[in-house]
Write a structure and sequence with these properties.
The structure is a homodimer. The first copy, chain A, has eleven helices and eleven strands. By secondary structure, the first copy, chain A, is of the alpha/beta class. Chain A is globular, with a radius of gyration of 20 Å.
Amino acid sequence: MAEMVHVAVDAMGGDNAPGEVVKGAVEAVNADNKVKVFLVGRENVIKEELQKYTYNAQQLEVVHAEEVIETGEPPVMAIRKKKDSSIVKAMYLVKEGKCDALVSAGSTGAVLVGGQVIVGRIKGVERPPLAPVIPNINGVSLLLDCGANVDARPSQLLQFAKMGSVYMESVIGIRNPRVGLVNIGVEEEKGNALTKETYPLLQNCPEINFIGNVEAREIPYGGADVLVCEAFVGNVVLKTLEGISSALIGKIKAGMMSTARSKMGALLVKPALKQTLKGFSTEEYGGAPLLGLNGLVVKTHGSSKAIEIRNSILQCIAFKEQKINQKIKEQVVLEN
Amino acid sequence: MAEMVHVAVDAMGGDNAPGEVVKGAVEAVNADNKVKVFLVGRENVIKEELQKYTYNAQQLEVVHAEEVIETGEPPVMAIRKKKDSSIVKAMYLVKEGKCDALVSAGSTGAVLVGGQVIVGRIKGVERPPLAPVIPNINGVSLLLDCGANVDARPSQLLQFAKMGSVYMESVIGIRNPRVGLVNIGVEEEKGNALTKETYPLLQNCPEINFIGNVEAREIPYGGADVLVCEAFVGNVVLKTLEGISSALIGKIKAGMMSTARSKMGALLVKPALKQTLKGFSTEEYGGAPLLGLNGLVVKTHGSSKAIEIRNSILQCIAFKEQKINQKIKEQVVLEN
């Protein structure tokens, strides 16, 4: 029998905690008997939620944590002071080897800081990138780094490319993923000091399938499977995508509701539209991993519902079974 | 009577040149008798196009230029070598004072280089930003810099903020425009070295209405009227917006055409949708000015149709009448 995958889940993190988080955890254990979830947070609240569901009690354990780190708190201070918070306690479960992975929809800053400070980096990994899966019209791409550490060095971007390739191939299942450097033009000499220095490093790296610079315009068309960039740029791309998608869809909905005629039409197009736009959602891919740590740390959207929590937990199984960290140690660090 | 505004138009630039460019020029002179257009390019081709239209011959002149700078050419070399190209000749018309402004849908690189090298910067302006107007759900914002010069200094971003404010107020007509610094978080201490150093400069500048950091997610919601950033970031925001908008709209159209039922619905929603999405187009605002030059240089989309050319030409009238360059000299340079 395969080894169980132990996942610590921050039951108090996110806009819909603990209700949706607990529900997602139950759905995950009911979906796969190889996973055991440790729900970390206020025991009485979590247990109250759990009473609503049926599940195999062997696969679900509650770990009490009194405190909660709020989204607005300065992360470094919060991680240091709130030792009894759900995020910190979940991080320690990974650090101490009781869990293989951690899933949190809570404060991004606290997850990033805690991941680095408590769980810790794999020796040789310069910087652990936050790597969300983003939708494109043909599927998905991995965009990294979208974390909080800006002003990266070329050698760090090279590691991002390698770690991203391992993840895309082994977890998302895209063979020989195309790696693109996010840039403001396709020619090699285009860009800023960072991209110009990074380009030859990527080009001369035999372990990745580098296809050159990718302009931001090509990202929604699936211009590359692994999109490499510095965190400021990644963050701007990610948030521009999120903002304009929701603004545009809002505008279209308003347009459809603006006249009697269009309202009638809306009823007719809705099912087909819903089906098409489903492809533009990433919830089935779970959250964004923070790659290169001694364990897996997954950050899901603050607005995550049960389905995203469930899929983020299940994604940890592939991460462990595919021995991602082993591969990162072998392919990213040693070859550096 | 008001002074005429002389606009040099690169008749050979863009995907739809010379047909749509000539048509747009004719529409501009027919729309406003204060403007005179100098169509620069191959005389015989332009004259052939002009025969299709009726217009006041006093307002339209053809200036022959034998060569054309193609989009793919390295811009610095092209500007240096192709002295008899439409872009270079149009630039000289501005430099020599025969024209107040120039409009081109041609090579962005050549327009940026030519603007700086031939037309030249206003004394004291450190770097001329390319400042496109971008749509948001409530109106438009100015995003600058989107040019080709990356790795800007904080003092340059301060100038962008001032020039952008002058332009938004005097040409687009937004009073006391809100200036936002594009960043990865709203708190003052967020961001990279550049944004952290720029923040206090903007905050302590009494001539602008600085509202703080703006996350990319807020851009499509009109989070600020003037969005200040370094060119790499501006370019990434602009192209992400363009890419995802066209990808999403393509996806929605495909969804509407996917079933018999949805096709029927599409017919009903189309007029209302068209009306709503019109607000998401910027063609009525003309092209992107390159601010801070001795004259106005406007870059319009390579795919510009007559309407965008027309509006780009008409936008030069407001630029001259509002004495933008005078204001830049007084408010941006002297106060530096």
